[in-house]
Amino acid sequence: MLQRNYHTHTYRCQHATGDVIDYAKAAIDGGLTTLGMSDHAALPDNRWNNVRMSMPELDDYEEAIELARKECPDLTILKGMECEYVEEFHSYLEDELLGVRGFDYLIGAGHYTPFEGGWLNSFEELNKAAHLRAYASFLGKIMSTGLFAFIAHPDIFGCSNDKWNDDLTECSHDILQAAVETGIPLEINGLGLRKIPKQTSEGPRPQYPWIPFWEIAQEYPIKVICNSDAHHPKDVAGKLDETEQLARRFNLNLLEELPI
Question: Which domains, ranges and CATH numbers included, belong to the chain?
Answer without folding.
Answer: 4-254 (3.20.20.140)
